[in-house]
Specification:
Blueprint lengths: L3 H13 L2 H10 L11 H17 L4 E5 L9 E6 L7 E7 L20 E3 L4 E3 L7 H18 L5 E7 L9 H7 L1 H4 L3 E4 L11 E3 L2 E12 L5 E2 H4 L6 H12 L18 H7 L23 H6 L3 E9 L8 E2 L2 E10 L8 H11 L6 E4 L15 H16 L8 E3 L2 E4 L3 H7 L3 E3 L15 E3 H27 L4
Parallel strand pairs: 3-6, 3-7, 7-17, 8-15, 9-16
Antiparallel strand pairs: 1-2, 2-6, 4-5, 5-18, 9-13, 9-14, 10-12, 11-13
Helix pairs in contact: 1-4, 1-14, 2-4, 4-14, 5-13, 12-14
Bound molecules: zinc ion (ZN).
The site of zinc ion has 4 residues, from loops.
């Protein structure tokens, strides 16, 4: 029933008549700022009063699942079952946002009031890009296909979490506990930025984060530098040198155990098709990072070691004394080839060998998942790419190409799906690097959202049309 073009027309209509803007306005208005002490009441408003009734209009049955690790961050699991024997698609999003930061937004903007700037085509609001607008696009697209086609030919499970901005506590546990309810043949979800605002992008996984603290505590209290300078070792200087032995002055990781051995050929081939322009963001420092790698290889194919914070003495009120201690929070982003379990032992061994045994190392608790990656030759990647190309061919700019990233440079809790439940994962970002997510003036680009709605409608349409064949053939 129905046809693909009509489904996409429905998506355009939904967007162009402001229905999407109005829907998202209501979602953004709920203050789900994740680091607030008790966000649960607001999160429940989002899950029970907004998501549930919306999903029920599409015949989903919804239930709240308490979070076994973090009571403030409940989950919503919604299932739309046409026939248990049909294939399953899992969709994921997060309803929590970073704190609103209302006082820091530009005059005229307010984080909880979605505001359209007609000139720039930007819609400002907390969570507009990360992640309410993104799961909004996918659910609205699904709705267009259901309305046009009557049925999907596959089952859909939606999982919305409320703790993503605080490291997804309990997500892996819930994926384990609810494995049966969440089991699916593929994950299709959206978060993060496109590689370039104008280039529709698919990514198959994400790098992961490993945070650790280095500290040097030599004695109690500071000592007058006139009497003791030159006699007492300075923990700030020792710590700086310890860090400098791990990463050089141009950001190259010196300790080989913290770098991937290589970039696999198929991954390298996919990455080498990508260009990072940095458009919409700060100017790139071309000489920073691993020498010999392209900017895209640095972000998608390699690891980085950074210092997030460094403290020695009293930074707000320095005094002429040798400080007793120094502390730094360090941060590794790593790709799927690296095993985070090996990082601390390697750093310990290295620091001892370099004469830095007085430097203590401590992993920040619960700070990492596994990095994940999809092979560019995976049939799901091919399927989504060709669906998008079909849709783009019918849009006003038929010369557009789709970019595929084996993994995102940033981090998502994707291993919960790829490893804990076990399924291929396709991510389609509906935002861009300059969207100010996690900062004041967060916004989405109208152009990207409008195009995203059409791409996702086409994707769900193609999946509906071909579900039986592609899943039956076990091609995927
Ligand atoms: Zn975020």
């Amino acid at each position: 029933m129905g046809n693909r073009d009509n489904a996409i027309d429905r998506a355009k209509h939904f967007f162009d008549t402001n229905a999407f803007f109005n829907m998202l306005s209501g979602w953004v208005a709920v203050d789900t700022g994740s680091r607030e002490d008790d966000r649960k009441p607001q999160m429940l408003v989002y899950l029970e009063k907004i998501m549930t009734p919306y999903l029920e209009t599409m015949d989903f049955s919804c239930r709240i699942v308490e979070n076994p690790a973090e009571p403030c961050a409940p989950f919503l699991i919604a299932r739309r079952i046409e026939d248990e024997t049909l294939p399953f698609v899992l969709m994921y999003g997060h309803g929590d946002t970073v704190p609103a930061m209302a006082e820091d937004w530009e005059p005229g903007l307010s984080p909880l009031k979605l505001t359209k700037d007609e000139n720039s085509g930007k819609w400002y609001g907390r969570g507009a890009a990360d992640n309410k607008g993104q799961h909004g696009v996918n659910l609205a697209a699904l709705d267009c296909v259901i309305k046009e086609r009557g049925s999907l030919g596959f089952n859909v499970v939606v999982l919305i979490e409320s703790g993503e901005e605080s490291g997804s506590p309990g997500l892996h546990l819930v994926c384990e506990q609810e494995k049966q309810a969440l089991q699916a043949d593929v994950l299709i979800a959206s978060d993060g930025p496109r590689i370039d605002p104008d280039i529709p992008t698919i990514f198959g996984g994400s790098r992961a984060v490993f945070n650790f603290d280095l500290s040097v505590h030599l004695r109690e209290g500071g000592h007058h530098s006139g009497n003791w300078g030159g006699l007492l070792a300075n923990p700030g200087i020792i710590l700086s040198h310890a860090i400098a032995s791990l990463v050089d002055a141009k950001g190259r990781i010196l300790l080989s155990e913290l770098r991937p051995a290589t970039i696999p050929a198929s991954v390298k081939k996919a990455i080498d098709k990508l260009t990072i322009t940095g458009k919409g963001g700060p100017e790139i420092d071309p000489l920073w990072g691993e020498p010999g790698l392209s900017p895209a290889q640095k972000v998608y194919g390699w690891n980085t070691l950074d210092v997030l914070a460094f403290e020695c003495g009293t930074p707000s009120q320095p005094v002429n004394a040798i400080p007793p201690k120094a502390w730094a929070r360090c941060h590794i982003r790593f790709v799927a080839d690296s095993d985070p379990e090996t990082f601390i032992p390697a750093i310990r061994q290295h620091l001892d060998a370099q004469g830095f045994s007085m430097v203590d190392i401590e992993a920040v608790p619960n700070n990492y998942g596994l990095a994940t990656r999809m092979d560019p030759d995976n049939p799901w990647v091919q399927f989504a790419t060709s669906s998008f190309e079909t849709t783009l061919g019918k849009l006003a700019t038929p010369d557009k190409k789709v970019s595929f990233l084996p993994n995102l440079g940033g981090t998502l809790p994707n291993d919960a799906f790829s490893h804990v439940i076990g399924m291929p994962t396709i991510w389609v970002p509906h935002s861009y690097g300059g969207c100010n997510q996690h900062a004041p003036n967060e916004h989405v680009s109208e152009k990207i959202i409008r195009e995203g709605m059409q791409l996702m409608t086409g994707l769900f349409w193609d999946l509906a049309e071909q579900a039986e064949t592609i899943f039956d053939k076990k091609l995927f």
